[in-house]
């Protein structure tokens, strides 16, 4: 199982739909994608994790890196995730306090705070 | 002797193989289905860490994974050959989001959050992470 990535624009947000496994092997692809989006001026990202089967700390590191990049431009990075086994990893590492996590893309796109 | 032993070149693409093998052997050994996700994640973290240590240290030796079926428990040992003096079991960083410095610690943080019974040792010949899970029957109370 490899990593799949697709992006689309919804209003002023860029939704990155991620599928498959995010680990030490595939995480660099996600990192590249996020860096490219930010370099192209997309500072409000929504990462849809509903299709993710596996996420490890390398993946978390990439997401944190993405967050740092968008924040440098007053941007935002929101996650969409309902899978308990993925959410658990965010909880264990305390990252639920760092990332806004939404239950749907619509909710994430509409969120402002 | 380990039930199954795995040695792989310290490359990121092999970590997934280690996860799959570990989960398969854990299942056969009677580790609860509900815990298999945790086994998969924990062994992946340990292998990722070992691969990182070998790569950054220029070590060509393989990473070693031992899957050990014992009475009422199942253990996984992930060994690296990266020499170091300080043990790598520092407390996970809190709040700070400096990625590079924290990546190694984040892996350990995930493992320690997932596995109640874990042990990290490191010395001049390398490090070892040992993780243990109970196997069935789950109703038996162990002291």
From TrEMBL, chain A:
GO terms for molecular function: anti-sigma factor antagonist activity. Gene3D superfamilies: STAS domain. SUPFAM superfamilies: SpoIIaa-like. PROSITE patterns: STAS (PS50801). Belongs to the anti-sigma-factor antagonist family. NCBIfam families: ant_ant_sig (TIGR00377). This is Anti-sigma factor antagonist. The lineage of its organism: Bacteria, Bacillati, Actinomycetota, Actinomycetes, Kitasatosporales.
UniProtKB/TrEMBL annotation, chain B:
GO terms for molecular function: ATP binding; protein serine/threonine kinase activity. It comes from Streptomyces phaeoluteigriseus. The keyword Transit peptide does not apply. It comes from the Bacteria. It holds the Pfam family HATPase_c_2. Signal peptide: none annotated. Keywords: ATP-binding, Kinase, Nucleotide-binding, Serine/threonine-protein kinase, Transferase. InterPro entries: Anti-sigma-factor_SerPK, HATPase_C_sf, HATPase_dom. This is ATP-binding protein. The lineage of its organism: Bacteria, Bacillati, Actinomycetota, Actinomycetes, Kitasatosporales. Residues 8-133 form the Histidine kinase/HSP90-like ATPase domain. PANTHER family: ANTI-SIGMA-F FACTOR RSBW (PTHR35526:SF3), ANTI-SIGMA-F FACTOR RSBW-RELATED (PTHR35526). The keyword ATP-binding applies. Residues 79-99 are annotated as: Disordered.
